[in-house]
Amino acid sequence: xxxxxxxxxxxxxxxxxxxxxxxxxxxxxxxxxxxxxxxxxxxxxxxxxxxxxxxxxxxxxxxxxxxxxxxxxxxxxxxxxxxxxxxxxxxxxxxxxxxxxxxxxxxxxxxxxxxxxxxxxxxxxxxxxxxxxxxxxxxxxxxxxxxxxxxxxxxxxxxxxxxxxxxxxxxxxxxxxxxxxxxxxxxxxxxxxxxxxxxx
Length: 200
Hints:
Blueprint: H1 23-35, E1 38-39, E2 42-43, H2 50-59, H3 61-72, E3 82-84, E4 95-97, H4 103-107, E5 115-120, E6 127-131, H5 132-148, E7 156-160, H6 165-176, E8 180-184, H7 190-199
């Protein structure tokens, strides 16, 4: 039953022009190749639609997320032992137990001209695009500055900064150098900012 004032979509807003070259198709091909189940000529597992992929992801949590890890090429210094703790979802389970990775290393593995970040302000008609190469270069400069200031792994970096590209650069730099990042939003009062600093 449709609620008053709620408009129900009657048609698709968008669909890819060529599903055979989409990332989702490549991901489904990986799943079918790795976990194909067949008896004789009968194929029991054939994940070839979004609905089938969703259903399989719910029924096979471990296999699905292990496939996501592999497909996305996550870099880690230590691989996982278990994809998921054997606890209910409402208990906030631990994912990829035993793994060790650096978020920045994964973000900065690309250094090309593909778009990494799109920044826009109050006027959403104006946006600026930053490439992975630009992102890497900015992080390199900030990292060099922090090293020159004798900032070490484990140190806490506090910044009074708005949501902007520079905040992203600083965040990634801190992860890269194994530091703790604590941004302070401009909307907080002086008293609120002091309360947060006391916690650290």
